[in-house]
Write a structure and sequence with these properties.
By secondary structure, the chain is an alpha+beta fold. Helix content is 29%, strand content 38%.
Length: 165
C-alpha cells in the first residue's frame, strides 16, 4: 500500500472507485481545496487502485466551538476505506499517520478529527491511536443528488485531539 497526495489525474479514478453520493464529486471539491492551500488530500493506493482517502483541513473543524476550544488544530476529515472488505487492514491507520506527519512537518502540535457518536468502531481505532475527546458538536452538511434534490445531513459528533510529539 502507498499513501500519496492527490493529483488532478487521480480525481476521475477516485470518482470511479470510491463514488460520491451526489451529482458533484466530493473528490473534485476536496482537490479544489487542496489547490487553494486550504487542505491536503491524501489517497491510499493498493495495486494501482485507490482504496481510501482523507483530507487534512489546515483551518480546522468547520464547527466554531471546536475551533475556539482548540485554535490552530488541523482536522483529519472524511476518512474512508473502500470497499468495506478492506477495513481493519491498517489502511485507515496509515492515512491517519500520514496526515499526522504532514501536520508535524508544518509545525503543528496537535491534530484532531470528528467521530460520529454512532460509530463506536471508529472511536475505538482513534482511541488506540492516541486521540482523546475534546468537545461534542453537531456536524451539518448537504449534497445535491443526481436528480437535483438537496439532502441535508445532521450528525452528532465528538471532536478528538492527539498531541503530536
Amino acid at each position: 500500500m502507498e499513501i500519496t497526495v492527490c493529483r488532478a489525474a487521480d480525481v476521475a479514478l477516485l470518482d470511479q472507485c470510491i463514488a460520491s453520493p451526489g451529482a458533484t464529486s466530493f473528490h473534485a471539491r476536496r482537490f479544489g481545496r487542496q489547490e487553494r492551500g486550504a487542505s491536503t488530500y491524501l489517497v491510499a493506493w493498493l495495486d494501482g487502485r485507490p482504496v481510501g482517502h482523507t483530507e487534512l483541513r489546515w483551518g480546522g473543524c468547520d464547527d466554531a466551538g471546536v475551533r475556539a476550544a482548540r485554535p490552530g488544530c488541523p482536522e483529519i476529515n472524511a476518512l474512508t476505506v473502500w470497499p468495506a472488505t478492506l477495513r481493519s487492514r491498517g489502511i485507515g491507520s496509515a492515512l491517519i499517520r500520514a496526515a499526522e506527519e504532514l501536520a508535524r512537518e508544518r509545525g503543528r502540535t496537535a491534530v484532531g478529527l470528528g467521530v460520529a457518536d454512532d460509530n463506536p468502531r471508529a472511536a475505538v481505532l482513534y482511541a488506540r491511536l492516541g486521540y482523546l475527546p475534546l468537545a461534542g458538536y453537531v456536524g451539518r452538511w448537504s449534497y445535491e443528488d443526481r436528480d437535483g434534490l438537496t439532502h441535508k445531513c445532521v450528525e452528532n459528533l465528538t471532536f478528538l485531539v492527539k498531541e503530536l510529539v
